[in-house]
Structure formats: C-alpha cells, structure tokens
Design brief:
With about 425 residues, this protein is of the alpha/beta class. The strands form three sheets. A seven-stranded mixed beta sheet has the order 2-8-7-6-5-3-4, sandwiched between helices. Strands 9-12-11 form a three-stranded antiparallel beta sheet, covered by helices on one side. A two-stranded parallel ribbon has the order 1-10. It has two domains: about 170 residues, Aspartate Aminotransferase, domain 1 (Alpha-Beta Complex); about 220 residues, Aspartate Aminotransferase, domain 2, CATH 3.40.640.10. The two termini are about 30 Å apart. Helix 2 packs antiparallel against helix 9, helix 6 packs parallel to helix 7 and helix 14 crosses helix 15. It has 16 helices and twelve strands. The radius of gyration is 22 Å and the shape is globular.
C-alpha cells in the first residue's frame, strides 16, 4: 500500500515558498542576493494595528472564538464592502479565514464535484491551479495576454464556458501582472457570465490588491455590476493592504448566508477559528481613520517605483513590459532575452521529462539567481498549463528604488551573458 494518497500527486504548490532555499544557498557563497521575488509589501503594518494586537493579547483575548469570525470584524467588513462596492451585505454573509488563501481551496471544495470545470486566470495566483486537480475538478485556464495588458475580452471567457463550468475565478488587480480591468470590461464579463452560466455557477473575485491601484483609478469589483452580487464571492484580506502578511487575516463575502455558513463549516474542520487578537487588529485596521491615507501613501510609493523601473526594464534588449495598473509586480516579456542567451535552444535540448517541469524563462530565472544573484519568479510559477512558448518573469517592486535598480542591472547583465548561460547549462544543476 503506498504511503501517500493518490490525490497528493495532483496537488501543486506556490513556488514563491520554494525559491527561498535557493536564495539562501546563493547568499551563503558570500554575495548578497537582490530579492525581487517577494509577494509582500516591504512596509511594516500600521502602528495602530500593532498596538491593538498587543492590547488584545495583554487582556488575554487569546481563546477560541466564533469560527465564522468575530462579530465586530464581520460588521466592519460588511460596512466596508457596502461602502466601496455599493452592496447591501450583512455581517452574516462574511466569513473570516487565516489569510486570503484558504477560501480559494474552500470554494473549490464547497462548490465543485469531480469533473466540474473551474475557469481561472493564467498567469494567475498559483493556488488557483494547484488545487483544482487535487479535488478532481478540471482546470480551464483563461489566458490573459499582454496585448490587452493582461485583462480579458468577454469572447475569451465565453469560449471557455461549458455546461460543466462551476466556478470562475477572476483577480483584478492581478498577481502576477498588475493588470486591472476597466468598468466596461467588468460589465461585459458580467453580462457574458449572466447570459451563459446556470444560476448556481459562482464567480470567485479575488480582490486582495484592492487598495494598491495607480494613476488615480478607483477599485472596481465585478460584484458591483447589475445582477452579480447574487453569484459573486468577494475575497480580500489584510496581507497586502496593510503589509501584514504574517497576521493571517482574510475574508470572503458570500452571496448567501447559507454559503457563508458552508465556509464556516470548513473553518471548523480545518482550524476552528482565526486568532481573536489578530481579528481585533484587522477590525482596527478597517475602522481607524488613519488607515485610508496610510494605504494611499503605500500605493503612491509603489507607483513611483513602477514608473522608475518600467523604463529601465524596457531599455533592456529583448524585454518588453506593460505598465501595471495596480498590485506591486511587473511582468515583462523576456522572449528576446531567452533567445539571446540561448535559453530557447537549451530548453529544446533537454530530455522530455525535464522539459515538462521547466521552461526557457525558468532556466533564465535560475541562471539569473545562481550566476547574477538576482531573484525573480518565472511564468510557470503562475499556472503551467498551456504556457509553452510564453516567456515572462514576475518582478516584485516590494523593494526600495536602489535595490530595484540594482536588480534590473543584474537582469540586464544576465541577458548579455550568453557564455555564462552556457556554463550554467553545462553544470546541469537547478534547471527546474
Ligand atoms: C491574488 C492573491 N490572492 C490571494 C493571496 C493570498 O493572500 P494571503 O497571504 O492573505 O493568504 C495572494 C498572496 O500573494 C495573492 O497574490
């Protein structure tokens, strides 16, 4: 009898957590690594949030609490959602989780039977794809392309909808591209979904980057489009908006109370509840009047970095990068660089079983890390299905400007270092 259940062969992972040991290995040779791989803001959580957590711990608020989330936090979330999305949800529609992530897998488990189809953005947050086969559902990637600045046209979505479609995942502003859909695009997507899908199909709208938007754009949610609140799950959290990834507080707002209670049942089965002192910190984050200006200032800092780095990236021969409208990532096309250093040919020469687990952009990513000490993420880390011939990197701008500029210089140097790339390939290590 095998040790592991068969389904374990079908689960994926988030490579952002896999690259850490490689960075440690490179840094231990004595050259510091420029880390542009990070998916968390390089800020500290606001002092009023930290003070509230300390106050709550001091008053011993560290016992089991409501598995759906403490009422005061759910009330604050409902108020915030109603104000920003023009909806009328109640605290009973809200369920709180340890971060934005758990509700992705929970939604797949709650709504989908084996064989059901899940449409999700690619490139997209890796957990969308990694969980689908684990629960026996069928992954249907919605490929977002560079020409539309990584948004999508309703026809692209329409072409993927079938009678088996059960869940449609959307994410604007997007990780890893920073793509933001316009009002017209969201409205057209909503019309497509409402006209083509059965009423029990759900849209999981991941809005975790809702407060990191550039160029004066407001956050728009597909849940605000007519008819959509009945079928949309809004997911968000405190990791990105408040630079508080370790706090592990996120939430989903469900179309019905019954569905929110189904998510609560998952909470009870997996972890009972989210630490109450952190939930009070999250409530304070939403209620404190200083939070709005604080988030706006963080977003302005990311916007300044975006503008500075975009030009420098686009100046590299073989790189073209779109201007992201939000989040804190740039997603350059590095097809020209892969060709220049020989990564396309090197990939073609690999044995088929290695080719299945890597890509030219992955080879360049690992080469840049091991030979030029700069860490970034590759295209495959954001959905691997159907990505042959797509050569991109994700560059996180969650680092100060000087670090970012040095990182871009190192990427440019890696792109010019064809000989070094040949040596890297000849060593035959770290190819995946
Ligand atoms: C699009 C997206 N959704 C969800 C998450 C998960 O956030 P959390 O750390 O709060 O679980 C992330 C984190 O990177 C993300 O980028």
């Amino acid at each position: 009898m095998p040790l592991y259940a068969e389904r374990m062969r079908r689960i994926g992972t988030e490579n952002a957590f896999k690259i850490g040991p490689h960075i440690v290995a490179v840094a231990s040779r004595g050259t510091p690594v420029i880390k542009l791989n990070l998916g968390e803001p390089d800020f500290s959580a606001p002092p009023w949030v930290k003070e509230e957590i300390c106050r709550q711990v001091a008053r011993d608020n560290s016992h089991y609490c409501d598995p759906k989330g403490i009422l005061s936090l759910r009330q604050a979330i409902a108020r915030q959602i109603n104000t920003t999305r023009g909806l009328s949800v109640t605290p009973d529609h809200v369920c709180v989780f340890p971060g934005g992530k758990p509700s992705i897998g929970f939604a797949q488990q709650i709504y989908c039977n084996p064989g059901d189809e899940i449409i999700y953005p690619s490139p997209g947050f890796p957990i969308y794809e990694s969980f689908i086969r684990y629960i026996g559902a069928v992954p249907v990637p919605l490929h977002l392309d560079e020409q539309s600045n990584f948004t999508c046209a309703p026809e692209q979505l329409a072409a993927l909808i079938s009678p088996k479609t059960k869940l449609i995942i959307l994410n604007f502003p997007s990780n890893p591209t920073g793509g933001v859909a316009t009002h017209d695009q969201l409205s057209a997507l909503a019309e497509t979904i409402l006209s083509r899908c059965a009423p029990d199909v759900r849209v999981y709208s991941d809005e975790i980057y809702e407060n990191i938007l550039f160029d004066g754009q407001p956050h728009l949610s597909i849940a605000s489009m007519p008819g959509m609140e009945k079928i949309t799950i809004i997911s968000s959290g405190f990791s990105k908006s408040f630079a508080w990834t370790g706090g592990r507080v996120g939430y989903a707002v469900l179309p019905t109370v019954e569905e929110a209670d189904a998510f609560k049942t998952m909470n009870i089965n997996y972890f009972s509840c989210v630490p109450p002192y952190n939930q009070e910190g999250a409530r304070e984050a939403l209620e404190n009047a200083q939070s709005g200006p604080w988030m706006a200032q963080m977003a302005r800092t990311f916007e300044t970095r975006r503008d500075a780095i975009l030009a420098e990236l686009n100046a590299i021969d073989g790189v073209s990068c779109q201007k992201p409208g939000g989040a804190f990532y740039l997603f350059p096309n590095i097809g020209g660089v892969c060709k220049r250093v020989g990564a396309l040919d090197a990939y073609d020469d690999l044995p088929p079983e290695t080719r299945r687990t890597t890509s030219p952009a992955t080879l360049f990513q690992m080469f840049a890390l091991y030979h030029h000490q700069v860490a970034v993420m590759d295209r495959r880390s954001f959905g691997a299905i159907g990505t042959d011939g797509l050569h991109y990197l994700r560059i996180s701008i969650a680092a100060d400007l000087e670090t970012l500029q040095e990182g871009v210089r190192r990427l440019a140097a890696a792109g010019d270092d064809g000989e070094g790339f040949q040596r890297f390939m000849a060593q035959g290590e770290h190819l995946v």
